[in-house]
Model the fold of this input.
Amino acid sequence: MSFLEVRDLHASIEGKEILTGLNLTIDRGQVHALMGPNGSGKSTFANVLLGHPKYNVTSGDILVKGQSILDLSTDERARKGIFLGFQYPIEIAGVGYSHFLRNAYNTLNKTLAQEQTNREVFITVKEFHEYVKRNLDSVGLDQAFLSRYLNEGFSGGEKKRSEVMQMLVLKPNVAILDEPDSGLDIDAVKAVAEAINKLIETGAGVVVITHYARILRYLTRLDHVNVMAKGRIVKSGDRSLSEELENKGYGWLGLEES
Done:
């Protein structure tokens, strides 16, 4: 049984259908890329998966280990071990970065500790801070970030690094990363890719939503490249498909950027 299965998913926003029969199966340890023209439904899929209230699922299902999660709230879905790295992370004033991470990690431990042998238990705040600092170093963020509020005053690149650092700290079963490479220079792209590689090593499933092949080139593993158009997956292949899309665009598939 696969960890996450999306079955013939249809979803709309304000009466407009965006997802039109999306099928996708993701297991722990698998690495997927999700590519496609602007407006094809990639970010909508990520938001619907985590239960964004603006989207309405009209038919189909989302299963985690064979159980539907459509009736679950966003926090309940997250407790199943699904992580979403936002395309546009928001600033949350008054919420301490370190405090947020520690509470989130401890909450996940209550549901994931029995199925993940690599989860650590931290008795003291100091022990947890040392753990977080190691992950900060892996994405090139200064330890001073731990004393700041969540994303407040972060640059665009720092927010992206912060998202993947949170992913490393929390150790989800499946991570959905919505354009983790957008707006980053090549060094930052490499740092983000290396963080994703560290998560891959834990056995997590990963979905990288991206327009470009460059971040995919730095991933140690890439099992499937899926192309979305008009709300569903229209073509799948291996790593070479992402290079074809990079070189040829979407026109050769009968698709055009909007």
